[in-house]
Amino acid sequence: MEGPSSFTGYRRMCCPTSIQIYRTVPTELHHPSFSVVASLSVALHSYPTYPASTADATVLCSNASPSSHCILSCIVSVSFTSSHLDHAMTAALTAPQLQSLLSQSLSPDASTRKASEQTLLQAQCAPGHALVVLRLISELASPDATAVRQAAAVHFKNLVKKGWEPDEDDKSAQNLLPPSDRSVIKNNLVELMCTVPPQIQSQIGESISIIASTDFPKQWENLLPNLIARLDIVNAHDVHWDVVNGVLLTANSIFKRFRYVQRSDALYADILYVLNLIQEPLTKLFLNLVTRLESGGAQQQQTATVSCLQALRTTCRIFFSLNYQDLPEYFEDHMGEWMGGFAKLLEYKNDSLVDEDEEMVPGPIDNAQVAVVQNLNLYSNKDEEPFLPFLPTFTSLVWNLLMNVTPFAKHDALATISIRFLSGLIGKLMHKPLFEGESTLREIFARIVIPNLMIREIDEERFEDDPQEFILSDMEASDTESRRKCSQDLLRAMCRQFEQQTTSICSQHVNQMLTQFATDQSQWKMKDVAIHLMLGISIRAESIQFGVSQVNEGVNIMDFFTRHVLTELQEPNMNVRPMVKATCIKFVGIFRNQFTKEQFGALMPLLIAHLGSPYVVVHTYAAASIEKILTSKVDGPNNTKLSKFAGSDLKPFLGNLFTGLFSIVDNVELNENEYVMKCIMRALNAAKDDLLEIVQIVLEKLTAALALVAKNPKNPQYNHYLFESIAVLIRSVSSKDAAYTSAFEQFLFPPFQHILQMEVVEFTPYVFQVLAQILEFRPEGSGLGQAYASLLPPLLTPALWERKGNIPALSRLLVAYLSKGSAEIVQHKLLLGILGVFQKLIASKSSEAYAFDLLRAIVLSMPQEAFMPQMKDILQILMMRLQQGKTTKYVGLITHFFALFVGKFGSQTFHNQLNLIQPGLGLMIVNQVWVPRLQAAPPTRLEAKTQIIGLTKLLCEAPAILASPNGTEVWSHILSCVLKIIFSPDSHLNALTSEDSDDAEIGYDATFSVLHFATHPVKDPFADVEDASVSFVKSLSQLCASQPGQVTPLIQQCLQSDPKMSVGLENLSQNAGVTLI
User: Fold this and answer.
1) Which Pfam families does this UniProt record tie to the protein (predicted)?
2) Is residue 718 a contact partner of residue 705, using CB atoms and an 8 Å limit?
3) What pTM did the predictor assign?
């Protein structure tokens, strides 16, 4: 194949082949003064011309207007001031040079720190640099060099993290650790870890774990033997506890990967390899540690006892990892030894290790016992038969633990895992005899459930002083364990086996507590516990997203709500009993499915009133409950779901609702509240038909909030909901009147300008998505407009695309440009720059999907004469990429594009373009790539329609296929693929996309956060074809008529193997009113 010509206008960054196709960006754009020129553009006045390429961006900046259009200057500035180091091969630093640089990196002077960090970045690419770092860590033993030594350890860990398994797109990282260095590192790292102080040991241990995540066990076979060799303390009188605990912590971090992953042959092979080496020495170590703990007594130093307990805790965590997937045979055979040790640990007491004054931090005994109960919980959940004889003993031991835990936070972990253990037992029929008897159930209530539901002093302190922490532990959607959550789960487990008895006992306690509160309202904690008891016994089934779906029929939820919850919310003074009010509001959110629309209408003003509470937890729970009400559904016609409380129902409350919500957002003394912003997002979406009157004030509030958080982004969820709120406002208003897009530009461009200018990397992907959304809503026929036209050339600059987090949003923005501004793109010769972006994206597996988004947009939006001259080069790039990496994903993407191309321009054009690269290539691709992909993974929905239309043209518009060698076989395979798609129940042929509700769970994603309300609606490229299957059968009929006696036998031969398909095709022909002859 000959190489494709250059796509001018985009600098070569990463080419999938050895052929250089990018034109170099003019050197003047790299001049250090360029970003200053760009920044000064905010003071200038007009756009006289559009730039023809990125090279004209400097001229453009010198003529820009100071209006909202000055956002251009920020993008240009970001693009060209994001410097990238030239990682040329340099000599490795000497140890003294490295020590000096690391010392400077700790300097209080910012300029000194920055200079040393830049030098370190340049030096780290030299072969042998990592070895010099390790030598420095090993040799710097003087106490005054500890800080530098620790900095070296952190530097080495970061080298390993970045360079051991480098990202395919990060070319600089691929040279950080050459093979020769890697071998030396792996052979010496364990030894180094065992000779350095603990604070440095932890960094080396993390480095070992990072390397092991990719190399262990197959490429690092001596790692585990080296670690195990340092755990032999059986005959040691003077144990080096730092070494033992360092090795155990490292082994634990390596083996954690055996937890919480799907079973596979490869996983089991790795576990078996580890077990064969470590199961026996680990067991000996565990028994020796238990013996040392028992025999230490007063003669053993306290520090040694603490170290021994730390080692036991980590050993238990390793045991957890090794047993997580299945019970290994060795541990089954030695069950008695391990369970005996666990029992001794649960019974162990040592008053000298208990700090009576400490309330927050768990002690070493607590930590070890938590690890033991975690193992017991693992075994009980697996119902392992060898464990069953030990259950009565451990049930008693765990019960005794719970009887002795204090209400202080230091015992929270021990209390929650112990309650979890009992919940797991009591909820299973096989263990029912352990808990039968009303006296046992009453004792569980009195001694476990109620004490752990009771509000403690620490809870009151968190409620007032650390509301975020309180919400995290108390909100039902949180993953954080708390005593209250675990106690409620214990109640539900009791109801599964003893529902009638549990309900009766619980009701008695609830009535007693409510009577106690009614007699003396200072006993408000009793009412709070009573409500939580009701929450525990009332719920049979629930989900975080949809709420309670099944309740305990023995509990009258609505009666309890009316008598005890509603009256609390109706209390005029919101400042009394704020913790009870928060619980009552939470009650409303949890049981939202059980309320009627009329009840919601009565509750709404009460919840809105509580948005004005000075207590963060109260107004947060109010916002969260309103948000849940707005997503509540009822069954509608044809299996649809309708909003229980729709926009029309919300309309009377809109003013007060937004006033309450934005009063919280505007309060600078409060932290960003993600629940409040999420409620704003839902309210805007629900009220979309009534936003025109308030759009300006809402937009002003949102942009003010954006300007505030852009200074220091702290809460990713809050930020996401903020941008979602902006997006839903744009969608709701602009979909009714596209003229509002100019107002959105006026309001949003200034804060967006600031975000881009200050390089707020957390927000730039959001900015690009919203820019794309506004552009897509611009009135039809209005083109790009001056501001957007001026933004396009800087968007094609390389530096902007080197930040991976920008790529999805930038690609989306370019697709919007192609959709709305194809005429301007052609006029100002910017298509080659866009094709340069395409080639950069297609070079990487992580961005290839976005390359095809651009390519499809070009084919669908640009005039054929604009891109067809480049089609040979485009196809050649695709072919080279296919040759280099024929992954399932890439084959799916390229065959989707082929179907679109053929559907738009015909079969002959497709073959002609591919045959320009190599004669017969078109037929080869169809036979060896396209058809096998469809056989292996048939497409669905819109792609299924596109494939049928494209394949129909291949079948019926290319008689040359039948004349070529093996042509009839290829033709039959294509026909079979079409029929398979049409008659597959999974193809959903007439559906554009799967249902995507606006009430779906929306939130931040660390990889890339798609703005749900800014997503572009899917457009059918063949909207004129109402039913692709009918179009196919009509075209096939015409082909049969034009070539009598030639096509029909092929059809019959294809249908012989599948009678159902034959019947299906016959019915399809009848419905279309055609015959196949």
Assistant:
1) CAS_CSE1, Cse1, IBN_N
2) no
3) 0.85
